[in-house]
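Re-running the complex after MR caught last week's input typo. The corrected sequence lines follow. Everything else is unchanged.
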Amino acid sequence: MASRIGIVVLIVGLAFAVPVFAHHGAASFDVGKSVTVTGTVTEYVWTNPHVLVKVDAKDDSGAVKQWVLEAWNPVTQAGRGWSKNTFKAGDVVSLDITPAKNEQPVGEIRGKIVINGKEFVQKPAAF
Amino acid sequence: MSKRLVVVLLAVMAAMFSAHVGAQDEKWNNIPPTRAAYRNWKPSGVAPKRDLTGIWDTVQTLGVSGILEHPALFAGGRGQEGGREDETGIEHPLPYTPAGLAALKKNKPSGPGVRQVDSVLTNDPAGKCDPLGFPYMFTWEFRTINVVQTPRQVVMLSPFYGNYRVVWTDGRKPPSDPDPRYNGYSVGHWVDDYTFVIETTGMLAKTWLDHAGRPHSEQLKVEETFHRVSADAIEFSMTFTDPVMYTEPVQATNKLILHKLPDDFDIPELLCSPSEFADYNNQVASPVLRDGSKK
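Corrected-run output:
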């Protein structure tokens, strides 16, 4: 499995041209792009203002990058079926994210979530 | 007692304990229904007279940019990525005075909208966990409020950012020369058995009108109407008057539906902690700043 850890970049183009994910601080993220980050959870932070999932993932050259991936606040995430127990350190995950425009390893979790080989199906967003 | 019976008994006890914990926890941190849940909703039940008591929810203000009647967006909901200096071209413009326009440009919102900036560059009071004050607390992610009526007051409690309001209903007049404060000074009265009107004055000018960075002066006056249309709904309207910043009154919400939730609904807390926000800025907002020289 370790050899499969990596990052797959998918350009989704303008699929998100109509704002469906109005998010605090979204100006810094490239909403027209989706990246799949696959790696190992190092920390799960269930707190305000935004829930964070930190993931160590290897890039194409094999170097490990620590990604900081954010969701919404705990209340909104609870509405989508998340809890303080959704992730734990050591989980192998694959997360579709919207990456930062400046290419730092930071992103917003949006789309498919796979935890230890099993898809985590979210409830619809509240809005 | 056979080993098998012991195992079965233990399993049954574990299941009972687990079910008990589950039922117990269902009473706490309740999540309101989604917008989709109200798609075919119609008001129902006879409205009680002169009564706003209860847990009220609207999901309509989640994820929007500024006041509902004037979102800081172009037609079709476009422009949320921000970057503009002013709001030229938005679908429902505000009637700024020259002073209002100048004040708008000083406010740097991080919420979605045509003037959005990277969140580390915002001067939004919410980004520092400063008190939102009124009306910002009701124009941004209104979410769920708990309304309590006493013989002299209507109290509104919002676990979002820990906001509260006290609306006096004892017949007092608004202060003539108020010392401005975050939540202002609110007086309310029943126009008829189903229509409660609140007038609020004396808000601190440094607070924002909404999450899109709209300004106000200390001349701001806010009128709200809570119209109890049924047992399960209130129509909520809000109008701003501020001759310093706006050439005419501005309608913020127009008959926004507040849905009644069960009386035992436990609203989850959603507080702003300065230290948690600083951690977030260090880990997310600062690294994603597009132009590092602006740090």
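None of the earlier attempt is carried over here. The helical segments of chain B are 3-25, 98-106, 136-139, 274-285. Chain B is about 15% helix and 25% strand.
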